[in-house]
């Protein structure tokens, strides 16, 4: 990095402690880090469609700027993927009025239009219209993708060169013909004012009310933030699948990932830290989540946006109360920021720890279709633990608090109570609320179970969640009935 006198304040910016840098040098360093992050992972192939999720915050706005510069003609090493933009309006959850939502969406649309990329603005209420396939793991079609990244790049450059040569050979019109065509298109009439064509529309009041009822049924702010993240992820993945995108870029930076790592450990999601904080996340199969901003700290991004005038559209948090203990997310963020102020290497140390984590082999591969997956986050289920595990000890405590035997599953205990307390004709009855909730929790990982337990009722969840839950429950029941007629997986087929 360049070292210059501190009195030259016009071109300097303090990015890290006691390290002034030139404006041009800092931009070159910032741009190089973005392209190096994409280059060393070699995950995005040339010509691949990539969807950028823009929230309007500093990180996602800076990510859009890096993609724009990487695709410009002046870029020495151009990016070769095809970008698209998507923005999700969450104003209903944040308590914004219709006018405030319209104003913010108009500001976001102006930024999206200036990018020149295809974009789409959707509201969070549309999550109630999603199909049940959004929580399915879809195997990606790799028949047209080369195994070697260099082979794919060489093939792309070869095709691009052939197209340029064909285009140059087809130019038969002369300069005079080109000028005549341009003159013919000119008109002496004054141009009419362009009509205001908004590409977004606010949802109905009924869907907004349904969304508010869902979040009002959540008891704690921590569970609300986790539920919002889950619904947002489902909406983004569905949009990417619907538009034909195979990669989804999100603007998680180094500071945010450090907070997420400690938060997820506190929420019981330690088994999935590699997917929640890594560069790539393939839990959805055909759509891979990519975090190209994970090498940047929030301080670097803020300085870059301020120095080069990157437009941002900030929104209110889920809870605007100044309390540090409002949620586990806020408490962890405050802890990290205070520790970072005294020890500048805190964020980088926590962040580097996440790079060394992998998914445990006992839960199966995250890219395997056979592994049972959580209904919410689509991570491999981590609830099939042995009796010597902490999770089993937690189940024992829950069963004892319900006055049931720890060795009897919940469904068997309920059935035993029915046999003891009811007539035989009463055995065939519809499942109770407790049974439905218990069956629903069995489809979730441990972390999502903790979030769901803060829901006072499951009735307000989107329809696709209930539909997929019923489908998995019925499938498990049928599988149990025919279990004795099935061959084991390790059966010897040799005669």
Give the topology:
Elements: E1 12-16, E2 19-22, H1 23-41, E3 49-53, H2 58-71, E4 82-89, H3 98-115, E5 119-123, H4 149-169, H5 175-185, H6 205-216, H7 221-243, E6 247-249, H8 254-266, H9 273-277, E7 280-281, E8 288-290, H10 298-308, H11 328-342, H12 346-354, H13 390-401, H14 410-421, H15 433-441, H16 446-452, H17 463-481
Parallel strand pairs: 3-4, 3-6, 4-5, 6-8
Antiparallel strand pairs: 1-2, 7-8
Helix pairs in contact: 2-10, 7-16, 8-11, 8-12
Strand content: 5-15%
Order of helices and strands: EEHEHEHEHHHHEHHEEHHHHHHHH
- Low-pLDDT runs of 5+ residues are 6-13, 142-146, 171-176, 182-198, 404-408, 422-429
Report the span from N to C terminus: 70 Å
Biggest sheet character: 6 strands, mixed
Alpha carbon gyration radius = 27 Å
* Helical coverage, percent range: 40-55%
Lateral arrangement of strands in the main beta sheet: 5-4-3-6-8-7
Give the total of beta strands: 8
Count of discrete alpha- or pi-helical segments spanning 4 or more residues: 17
What is the overall shape? Answer: globular
Please state the average pLDDT score: 79
Class by helix and strand content?
alpha/beta
Main attributes?
495 residues; alpha/beta; six-stranded mixed sheet; two-stranded antiparallel sheet; 7% strand
Task: Give a brief description.
By secondary structure, this protein is of the alpha/beta class. The protein is 46% helix and 7% strand.
Describe the structure.
The chain is an alpha/beta fold and 495 residues long. Helix content is 46%, strand content 7%. The protein is built from 17 helices and 8 strands. The strands form 2 sheets. A 6-stranded mixed sheet has the order 5-4-3-6-8-7, with helices on both faces. A two-stranded antiparallel sheet has the order 1-2. The longest helix has 23 residues. It starts with 11 loop residues before the first strand and ends in a 14-residue tail after the last helix. About 10% of the residues have low confidence.
């Amino acid at each position: 990095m360049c070292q210059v006198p501190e009195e030259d304040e016009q071109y300097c910016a303090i990015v890290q402690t006691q390290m002034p840098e030139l404006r041009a040098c800092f931009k070159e360093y910032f741009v190089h880090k973005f392209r190096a992050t994409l280059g060393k992972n070699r995950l995005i192939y040339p010509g691949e469609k990539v969807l950028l999720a823009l929230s309007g915050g500093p990180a996602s706005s800076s990510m859009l700027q890096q993609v724009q510069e990487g695709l410009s003609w002046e870029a020495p090493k151009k990016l070769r993927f095809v970008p698209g933009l998507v923005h999700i309006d969450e104003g209903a959850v944040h308590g914004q009025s219709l006018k405030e939502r319209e104003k913010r969406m108009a500001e976001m649309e102006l930024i999206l239009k200036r990018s020149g990329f295809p974009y789409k603005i959707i509201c969070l209420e549309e999550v109630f219209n999603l199909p049940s396939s959004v929580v399915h793991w879809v195997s990606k079609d790799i028949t047209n993708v080369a195994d070697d990244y260099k082979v794919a790049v060489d093939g792309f450059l070869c095709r691009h060169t052939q197209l340029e040569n064909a285009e140059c050979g087809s130019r038969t019109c002369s300069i005079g013909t080109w000028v005549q065509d341009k003159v013919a298109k000119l008109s002496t009439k004054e141009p009419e004012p362009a009509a205001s064509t908004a590409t977004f529309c606010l949802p109905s009041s009924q869907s907004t009310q349904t969304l508010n009822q869902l979040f009002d049924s959540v008891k704690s702010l921590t569970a609300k933030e986790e539920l919002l993240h889950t619904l947002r992820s489902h909406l983004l993945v569905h949009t990417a699948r619907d538009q034909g995108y195979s990669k989804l870029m999100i603007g998680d930076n180094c500071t945010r990932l450090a907070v997420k790592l400690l938060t997820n450990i506190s929420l019981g999601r330690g088994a999935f830290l590699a997917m929640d904080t890594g560069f790539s996340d393939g839990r959805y199969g055909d759509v891979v989540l990519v975090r190209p901003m994970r090498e940047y700290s929030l301080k670097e991004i803020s300085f870059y946006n301020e120095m080069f005038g990157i437009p941002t559209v900030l929104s209110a948090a889920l809870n605007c109360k100044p309390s540090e203990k409002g949620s586990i997310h806020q408490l962890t963020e405050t802890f990290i920021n205070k520790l970072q102020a005294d020890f500048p290497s805190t964020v980088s140390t926590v962040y580097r720890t996440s790079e060394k984590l992998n998914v445990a082999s006992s839960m199966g591969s995250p890219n395997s279709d056979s592994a049972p997956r959580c209904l919410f986050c689509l991570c491999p289920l981590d609830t099939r633990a042995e009796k010597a595990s902490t999770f089993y000890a937690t189940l024992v405590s829950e069963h004892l608090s319900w006055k049931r035997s720890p060795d009897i599953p919940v469904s068997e205990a309920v059935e035993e109570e029915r046999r003891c307390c009811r007539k035989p004709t009463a055995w065939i009855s519809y499942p109770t609320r407790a049974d439905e909730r218990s069956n629903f929790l069995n489809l979730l990982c441990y972390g999502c179970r903790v979030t769901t337990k803060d829901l006072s009722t499951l009735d307000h969840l989107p329809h696709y969640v209930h539909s997929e839950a019923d489908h998995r429950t019925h499938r498990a029941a049928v599988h149990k009935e025919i279990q004795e007629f099935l061959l084991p997986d390790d059966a010897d087929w040799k005669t």
